[in-house]
Amino acid sequence: MKMCRSGLTRVLVFALFAWSSSFENCNAGESYRGWNSAIFNVLDFGARGDGYADDTQAFVAAWAAACKVEASMMVVPSGFVFLVGPLTFSGPHCAANIQFQLNGILIAPTSRKPWGSGLLQWIQFKKLKGITVYGKGIIDGQGSVWWGGKATNANMPSTVPTALRFYGSQHVTVSGITFKNSAQSHLKFDNCVSVQVFDINISSPGDSPNTDGIHLQNSEDVVIYRANIASGDDCISIQTGCSNVYIHNVNCGPGHGISIGALGEDRTKACVSNITVQNVILQNTTTGVRIKTWQGGSGSVQGILFSNIQVSEVKIPIMIDQFYSPNAKSKLLKKASAVTVSGISYVNIQGSYTVKPVHFACSDNPPCTDVSLANIWLTPLEDNYNLQGPFCSQVYGTLRTRTTPPMDCLLTSKPPRINHNSCWP
Q1: Is there a smaller number of Cβ atoms within 10 Å at the N or the C end of the chain?
Q2: Which pLDDT belongs to residue 26?
């Protein structure tokens, strides 16, 4: 059964890679693609693009026109800066295969009024079939007005928006765009199927709060590659409901690394499966590749592969934390259940750490099982008294090769029978 599942995972990964390769020529610049039946330039709908006038309604009008025509193109031209308030480009009655060509600069409002009592996102594409956002443009969330202490953001709503969100959409492509300084997450996919993200840049300060680079939730068949991400939180965050995700050729740092979770908060059920992360460089991040769950949750994380990971100046390169909580006291509280973590593979992870090479803190019920490591070579950046060795608690697994540093903390005996609320029969 394990071999069948592993084989299926490999087939899915290669299929996703082949599918992603078919989009290589989609990242055009200022040129318009010949197969478009209609082009709708926001300047023709009254946008001024001077960075001061509110161009929101011009974007609304351009979208209303593009929405009616299959394979249409909405154009945001280069050489202009467009100040736009919260926008939702919505289906489900729009025609299919709309392109949003962004070569100009979009900036978010920095005053409270456009946000009302607070919104979850600044720009949203909702319930669309075949939506492509591409170009050489910039989405600038101007998030500094939301960050910092009360003196800094006292005038802004307490609900902090994501810069760009896709919800309930199929066949989504994002390429070529630069994201800057989102108030919160930069790019989010929620309840989406068949997602392509490539050739993008994301940048926010390392101390900016909750500024995830890419956030995935309840989405499947996702490919992310050739991305440069610097943020104040996870470079890529994979949440519940995600499956068949392939991430490769990503540069991450600063930030919190690439994370699955946190899962199972408030005793919820979380399901994540078939995730591959490979050919990734992490530099100056708090963690490298991480799985994090709350105590008291249910569900499972399974079929995860982390391979060909290069780390540099990373505090803890490899981590499973089943006691995740921002509250230090809550981390000490053990609950009667937890999300099941099994079938996790770490292959060819090399580089330098500054605190600890490996941290596996698994729950008592159930423990982590079927965890394997091969070709792990992690060395301290420099010798100091704060360095710690590998840590393992309640993790059953196998060392496929010798590791540096040596790991003798895995439980190699047969794990106990797990009777837990899993996601799959």
Answers
A1: C
A2: 43
Cβ neighbours of residue 417 closer than 8 Å, sequence gap 6 or more = none
Catalytic-role residue among 215, 248, 256, 359: 256
Question: Measured between alpha carbons, how far is 395 from 291 in angstroms, rounded to an integer?
Answer: 13
- Residue 421 within a domain: no
HSE toward the beta carbon, residue 268, CA cutoff 13 A: 12
Q: Which domain holds residue 92?
A: 38-111+121-145+162-212
pLDDT confidence of residue 1: 41
Contact 423, 404 (CB under 8 A): no
For residues 49 and 25, the model is more confident at 49
349/19: higher pLDDT: 349
Q: CA nearest 184: which of 156, 209, 157, 207?
A: 209
In the residue annotation, 233 being an active-site residue is answered as yes
For residue 4, give both structure tokens: 């069948």
* Count of the separate structural domains present in the chain: 2
Q: Hey, what are 219's tokens? A: 């989405």
Rounded-to-integer distance, Cα 66 and Cα 100, Å = 9
Q: How far apart are CA 4 and CA 7, in angstroms?
A: 5
Confidence at residue 170, expressed as pLDDT on a 0 to 100 scale:
98
For residue 141, tell me if it sits in a domain: yes
User: What are the CA-CA distances from residue 21 to residues 13, 14, 28, 132, 298 (Å)?
Assistant: 12, 11, 15, 16, 36
186 a catalytic residue = no
Helices then strands, each counted (H, E), the chain: 3, 29
Q: Please tell me which residue in 233, 234, 248, 359 is annotated as part of the active site.
A: 233
Q: What does the mean pLDDT of the chain come to?
A: 90
Name which residue leads in pLDDT, 247 or 1.
247
